[in-house]
Design a protein that fits this description.
alpha/beta; 6-stranded parallel β-sheet; 3-stranded mixed β-sheet; 12 helices
């Protein structure tokens, strides 16, 4: 590479850690911070400096990358980082924050002289670790050259949604509405199959090769049927948060999103049952008031389904 950047990464959970690792492997100088330091420490093996505070992580950074839980958490961490922010630095904001929160984050960037890029990503743990995310980006055209090396390190594709802060977030909410609906439907298909004593493989055979066939359906079903819900590709608790952001966005713009609302309730119910840190496919459990029988043993011996 020709341009080595100093990148301050704030938030090293499932997605943030993978992004920080790929930035370091691409030759950038990475300074990483996480509220729970232990989650950031493995990045030292890839050459990242592990910071004790957000301010330390962004000191001298050309680019600040945030990948935190939600909008309020992101604003809180950036306020902690504020004394060390360099005016003119680019801020790549990749948290799925929602429409209302993104406006507040853009205002913070303006107050501190940062060049703001609304840049949520599409993908889960596996594509994140492989540097194969899709970056949904929005921000001023004249500064894009400063952040494109970051996008290239973490993603396989960058889709520019517009110049205005928020256009990428709006696109992300639309995309997530489909992903979450498909995830919830997958869990219900498996639960109904079990209740009716139907082997799910027969359903997959029925739709194979047709317009209803989906690789995503089989992948998520496989996580449930083969008890591979941990480590999560994308956690139930985070999916519940995103579903609520989608419902709120619809409500604020005069649209009723009944499926998104029901999906949020399913995710929240599964989290309350103790599945919050498991893959969002664990929303399957929300179909039951009590723990279901062993998926591997029930429903026609369907545990051998290959995702």
């Amino acid at each position: 590479m020709t341009d080595q950047l100093t990148v301050g990464v704030l938030g090293t959970g499932i997605m943030g850690a993978a992004m920080a690792r790929n930035l370091a492997r691409a030759g950038h100088l990475v300074r990483a911070w996480n509220r729970t330091r232990a989650k950031a420490e493995p990045l030292a093996a890839d050459g990242a400096h592990i910071a004790d505070t957000p301010a330390e992580a962004v000191q001298g950074a050309d680019v600040v990358l945030t990948m935190l839980y939600d909008g309020p958490a992101t604003l809180d961490v950036m306020r902690q980082a504020a004394p060390a922010l360099r005016p003119g630095a680019a801020w790549v904001q990749s948290t799925t924050a929602g429409i209302e929160a993104i406006a507040g984050l853009a205002a913070f960037a303006d107050e501190h002289g940062l060049v703001f890029y609304d840049a949520p990503v599409l993908g889960t743990r596996q594509p994140a670790e492989a540097g194969q995310l899709t970056v949904l980006a929005a921000g001023p055209a004249e500064g894009r050259g400063a952040v494109e090396p970051v996008f290239d390190a973490v993603g396989a594709r960058t889709l520019w949604a517009g110049d205005d802060a928020g256009s990428a977030t709006r696109l992300k909410l639309v995309a997530n509405s489909w992903v979450l609906a498909a995830t919830a439907a997958t869990g219900e298909v498996l639960a109904l199959s079990q209740a009716l004593d139907v082997d799910p493989q027969k359903f997959f055979d029925l739709i194979a090769g047709g317009p209803l066939d989906m690789g995503y359906l089989k992948a998520k079903a496989g996580l449930v049927l083969n008890d591979r819900l941990s480590p999560a590709q994308f956690a139930v608790a985070t999916a519940a948060k995103d579903a609520r952001l989608i419902v709120e966005a619809g409500r604020e713009n005069g649209v009723r999103l009944d499926v998104a609302a029901a999906t949020a309730e399913r995710m929240e119910r599964a989290a309350a049952q103790g599945h919050g840190d498991e893959d969002m496919a664990a929303a399957y459990f929300a179909s039951f008031d009590e723990k279901p029988v062993d998926r591997a043993a029930g429903s026609g011996g369907c545990a051998n389904l290959s995702a």
